[in-house]
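User: Flagellar hook protein FlgE, Pseudomonas extremorientalis:
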Amino acid sequence: MSFNIGLSGLYAANKQLDVTGNNIANVATTGFKSSRAEFADIYAASKLGTGQNSIGNGVNLAAVSQQFTQGDVNGSGGILDMAIQGGGFFVQKGSDGSLEYTRSGAFRADKDGYITNNTGTSRLQGYAADADGKIIKGGLTDLQLNLSNLPPKASTKVDSTSNLNSSEPVIDQVAKPFNPNDTSTFTTQYSTTLYDSQGNAHPMVQYLVKTDGNKWNAYTLIDGRNPNGSAPTGTPSTPPVPSTLTFDGAGKLTSVVTGGVSDKTLTISGWVPGTVTNGVWKANGADANPAGIAVNMANITQYNSATYRNPPVTDGYATGQITGLKIDGSGVLFATFSNQQSKAIGQISLASFNNEQGLQPAGSTTWKETFASGQPGYDTPQAGTLGSIVANSLENSNVNLTNELVDLIKAQSNYQANAKTISTQSTIMQTIIQMT
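Assistant: Predicted structure for Flagellar hook protein FlgE:
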């Protein structure tokens, strides 16, 4: 028996203890992947190879392989906490410009809004979004939370569904000409908020007057004025131009005529945004959509039921401050704003490797590419074999503590047994020495 065999066993048992101890130490480390010590026996060989009766020369550490099995995903509540459910790695750029790969999704924003790891030393990589919120799948870039205000957008269209009660009495407009200040001169009214180029809100009110059994007149005022800013009543005044709505016997809209033009979409052109202070109107210097505001009137009916209007849908909005962040399963980051708008500000990229075992551990729960791992492939979550993103959650370590404690006992027993072989070899050597 050779002392070297026992020494190699002690070395192997010691390495097994190191690997097991490292697993146990990281049982609570987010995104940690357990390792396994793999051993191979040693045979002495000559030029003619090993014979049938050859005795091994011990054991050596063949590899320390990492187990990239899925860890449990638990909710954490962190706004930028993310977990990967499935395959793939988050991509980070270190302070030296090199790329790192991790399963730890404990991210946060730094003072400049960049999304970094929990130590603030590496930035999360992904795809940028343009000003309209469209994801640009070009090269990887540092993901950044744009904390600036969302610029306002001038209204260009209004769309809604409504019904006018066919049982309403007819109003004689000769005897009672339309007056927005006299409720007896109109049947009902609808209000919609419009926005100019500076994000100022302007109430647009449509007054509807039943003039015949199947006919209604609609008068459209903005800020209580005609769209061009002139007063609809008083002196001087410009009477508003009505839109005549005609329905068939079944209560369905057949035509909308405005100024001699028949179109179910009323285009409000020439609007001059302004403000009214103490009854005095003045232009506020903002612009309106030069093509006009298209008010869809095609979804109006006249049934014998209560007059109603569903909430209008408009595309304009005021200036918005960021109020929250949402991340969907495909890794798209949506910013929500105080003006009820939301916009994509970027998308996370995940990396995959042909040989994950070839990755080199780089500390801080990260790995780096090696020749053995192959080059990484980048794509969005849920693409191909890549997993999905679970927001406000973290992936726990995949260490099974019960198995590790059992392996700890085995390694200790292996160490004691190999120490015993050395002790036995020493006893034999002493016997031989005494015989001489």
